[in-house]
Amino acid sequence: MASRTSSPLTHPAPGDFDLFKVMGALTDDTRLAIVVTLAASPGLACNGFNQNVTASVLTRHFRVLREAGVIRQHDVGTRRFNTLRKEELDRRFPGLLDLVLTEGAARVTPHTDADCA
Fold first, then answer.
1. How far apart are alpha carbons 21 and 53 in whole angstroms?
2. Which of 10, 71, 87, 91 is most buried (CB neighbours < 10 A)?
3. Contact, 36 vs 52, CB < 8 A?
4. Neighbouring-strand partners of residue 72
5. Which residues are CB-contacts of 21 (< 8 A; sequence separation ≥ 6)?
6. b/e burial code for range 7-17 (CB count within 10 A of at least 16 → b)
7. Nearest 5°: phi and psi at 27?
8. Dihedral sign, CA of 26, 88, 58, 19?
9. Do residues 9 and 15 lie in contact, with contact meaning Cβ atoms separated by under 8 Å?
């Protein structure tokens, strides 16, 4: 089945990760909640997230995380799946994501719709 979008998803190579882009992507509570949720539920589809924002706003948050290199997205039919790029981030910035997840878990609540996973 064809991709749900006409433009391809772009992901930075690990060598192109920029610490300040990564940190900027993680400063927003909605994006932080997405990251904490993905750590607990890897491979979750976009429609599995139940945030208090519109779908278009949530899409923008996913794009910011993807373009910073924090997540990887891929399409399967009409669903878009998300995974953390933990191993790649750990190689580039050792310990950063573990610290973000530890501190983030105390700050935001992961929230998913289990029926959509």
1. 22
2. 71
3. no
4. 83
5. 67, 68, 69
6. eeeebbeeeeb
7. -80, -20
8. positive
9. no
